[in-house]
């Protein structure tokens, strides 16, 4: 019944159950949403994915302060209304009116409520902001029962969406904390190769969740929920513990200087405990063996320049290296990179996949590579899958790359097995 759930932060859709952890401008997809209101019910003739399928979308404000709120979309109950009209001896049409839009059974376009003929009867919900107009020849007791039943169905649907939204967020929070306690999370390592020496230079740590009932849950879903429901720091610290345990085995197989890259969320990065947490993590690793790289996504950069400068300097002084992850997918960070010292720039796989295809991404990729050269930043190409992509990156001076061309993400056991057999 529910088509999708979406999390909104500021003016952006930050996460979607349908598309995962991707950022979209709210106004481009759900322009009628007012994020300052506690609830809001609106209509659309469709979405970008399903343009000809009318929907109702419900806005629910989040009062925790972690995010602005959430949206739930459901198919507009036009078919139910049409069935009611067809089965009724007296009703000829039903119009659903939300905001300044009206959709009448049997029609495929919105019209202004002022253009509708006078209804036989109407039912209005002031709380949820919708009206139902019923058209027909004669009002009977049976007609009233039909109208009230349909109206109650709509109201119950809205109330259920609100309940599901709040309940889903709380359930996911509890599930994540239970998963930490019961050891459901594990880490895999995506090898990163030096394109000049053609040897492994390090690996990126990726967190995975194997739920006992639901199986493997996509990381772009559970990480986004963890960020917005206040458990991302606990989840990250649990990941640190898993990595530290594996590192005691890895030290016997990798020479000193191997890069160990971990992702840090915006919430954790701006937490007052970030330095203490990272210092504790590094203290659990074999001394002077791994170089810790902190990957920060472009969309969560600290806006306060003075605060960013202070934090980044402290992290560098402690021996951490910094990488901008998924560059090119969020807000422009060019000025940011000119102000603050970053060690690595990771290019999103979407740009890498455009190599050799002459898409709109191609000139953008060339500009990013030139910018990295000008700023003396080392580049890591993500999602490399073909020899053609590898050749282009080498010719362009890219130093590091990762992707299925080299290796899929591996558990510690798989990684050590591959290394020992290669040796």
From TrEMBL:
EC numbers, comma separated: 3.1.4.52
Gene3D superfamilies cross-referenced by the UniProt entry: EAL domain
Enzyme class: hydrolase
Name assigned to this protein: cyclic-guanylate-specific phosphodiesterase
Secretion signal span: none
The organism of origin for this protein: Plesiomonas shigelloides 302-73
SMART domains: EAL
Chief place of localization: membrane
